[in-house]
Input
Amino acid sequence: MAAAELSAIGLTEADRALVARFESAGQGHVFRFLRQLSHPETRALLAQAGTIDLGRIARIAQGDDVSGEIGAIEPPGSELVRRDEVPALRRDAEARGLEELRAGRVAVVVAAGGQGTRMGSTAPKGLWPVGPASGKTLFHWHAEKVLHWARRIGRPIPFFVMVSEATQRATEESFRWHGHFGLDPTWVRTPCQSSLPALDDTGRMLLETTSRIAMAPNGHGGLFRTLGDAKLLDLLADHGVRSLSYVQVDNPLIRPVDPVFVGLHTIRRSQFSSKSVAKRDAAEKVGVFGRVGGRPAIVEYTELTDDLARATGPDGSLLFGQANIAAHCIDVAFARQIASQGLPVHRALKKVPHVDADGRAVSPAAPNATKFESFLFDAIPLAERTLVLETSRAEEFSPIKSNEGADSPDSARTDLIALFRGWHARAGLPVPEGAVEVDPSKAPDEAAFRRLHGLPAA
Output
């Protein structure tokens, strides 16, 4: 489109420069419908285009910055702390973790960019009701766990909820409507992760509509740049925060604040620590901890051969039997390093609805484009020191991934009820019937439950 024509439809010099950059990059087609757009639509398209790093998109299209073949795969090494080792470490680790919390050196990050599409909802997953009796949402559930610890240590705990464009508004409205669930609103932030455009097989961007480029969130690995771009890593560093406790919103059993985990992370001077649980069986489709090319890493189940997945050690346990549950403790200085250097992206062929050259909507029957996302755990091999802490599936892992069956809202509710009944039974208290629930703001874990009832630690 000629400069005079662009001026005629009201584009400024800066707008025209942006269009020229897209044309030089071979992506000028995204502006083919400018003449037909209203002024608000034009401004929205230009604003969206202005957020796209054309240089990075060109590198991705050429295969640079894209994750490739992995190296030799081996079982995890000395970084793994198994459950039977924890009792001997617990006292010192818990004391150190509490020290870190009381000194204000820990912040919580909840990844919450996904929608409940598999549950038939376009609302954020964090709005899904999970309290067995109360119906409290996942947002409410996690926030009250953090509230418990903020009250116990007598100071706010920074609470960041990483959202996407699709979940930002509803998430922020939920927190405002519920008074931030009792948390100090000064320290509740909702940084929005970036998105990357979907590319066709020629490396060209697709248009979702005539006024919008087809985009997708850049994955949980976008956390580092999201926090960096929002200046939140600088804010935390300025306030003396050393560790990020990272969890995903869809797991109601997980502990956003775990002094033992934070303490071990600190004592071991780990830059990137993780929690694991034992796989149900060799066929469970989960990422596992191991070593790749001699470096600690998480190996996706698709990257394990059947022989490796079934391989066992002398004691009969699976060599690759430690499943990733997406719970991590990350050094803030290391997070700033990764925010600066970035992570590779992974390709995923998807069916991406779009408009054709004539502006007609197309709903593809087969995958027609590639989406790109980065994985948080790709930072593990870059760390000098790492830690994997094995924990209990029954106590810390019941994700909500689908509408029914395993890893569903019903299974999470069942697991929560079983957890709370177990607390009562081991405490020698009457075990309630029905939808038993323990208020997470009063007892986010069994140790706190026992304290609540004046009982000694188990």
